[in-house]
Amino acid sequence: MPAPVGNYTLDITFGVSIRTLQCLNKIIEFSKLKSTLGPDTPWPSDKISSLLDLEDELFDPLEAPELLKDRHSFPSADSQGGMPGYIADLITDSHVFAFHYSAAIFFRRALCDGSAHITPAVKRSSEPRTRPTGQYLMSKALDHLENIDAMSRNIAVANTLWPGFIAAVEAVDTHLRHRALIWLERVERAKRHGIGNIQQSTSLVMEIWRRADRQLGPQGNQDGLGVELGRVDWRQVMRDKNMYIMLT
């Protein structure tokens, strides 16, 4: 059964880490707090430690995957569609990591304004650790989504529009944009994830890319995995266009 997370409903049939779900809830809560801060207002001092802890909770598992092994749910015999247990485990792992990488991308958008650092800036007791770039995170989310498709083909597995959408809207690198469109088109043709909003999602993704590119100007070159996220917040675009897509 889907599990509610803030404003979203996530399909956890094939496993989503408890850690990921908790992080998403915290991101949403901190995002609400951030929206109340004035242009020059810092984070409340009593929230900084929790905010930095959240960053660690999101990014540490990318270097230590075993931290995500405690899943919220495991695939039942029915949800595996008769596939071998080993294959189901691989699909589950990709599902877990697709969601977690996309949660990290969402953190960068909601609490870092698309940059590599929390904004407003926070004081740290030590030097900040080097974290993956936004485009690298997006590429890894796509890797895991493509793994699911490669292993399942026409077998109904799980709804993956939420991580797919979160990754796609943040694509700046041209090659990653192409990969995102191919993934969306493949899901649309297959109609096997039970997803009914692919066309709307693709239209919104393209609108966000157009707006992001207009801000770059004619000399803007944003290709490569060393690039962060774009300047356009997809949440604002949805509000501007009075759109709400159920990412389920």
Note down, in words, how this protein is organized.
- 54% of the residues lie in helices and 2% in strands.
- It is mainly α and 248 residues long.
- α1 (18-35) packs antiparallel against α2 (48-63).
- Mean pLDDT is 83; it is low at 1-9 and 73-79.
Please name the defining characteristics of this protein.
single chain, about 250 residues, mainly alpha, 2 strands, about 55% helix, Fun_TF, nucleus
List the helices and strands and how they pair.
Elements: E1 3-5, E2 8-10, H1 18-35, H2 48-63, H3 85-112, H4 134-152, H5 161-169, H6 174-190, H7 198-216, H8 234-240
Keywords: Nucleus
Pfam families: Fungal_trans_2
Q: Determine the fraction of residues in helical runs and give it as a percent range.
A: 40-55%
For the biggest β-sheet, the strand order reads 1-2
Averaged pLDDT: 83
Largest sheet: 2 strands, antiparallel
What share of the residues does DSSP label as strand, in percent? Answer: under 5%
Count of helical regions: 8
**Rg on CA atoms, Å:** 18 Å
Which structural class do the helices and strands define? mainly alpha
The strand count comes to 2
Ends: how far apart? Answer: 12 Å
- Note poorly predicted spans: 1-9, 73-79
Order of helices and strands: EEHHHHHHHH
Overall form = globular
Keywords: Nucleus
Pfam families: Fungal_trans_2
InterPro entries: Fun_TF
Concise description?
The chain has 248 residues and is mostly helical.
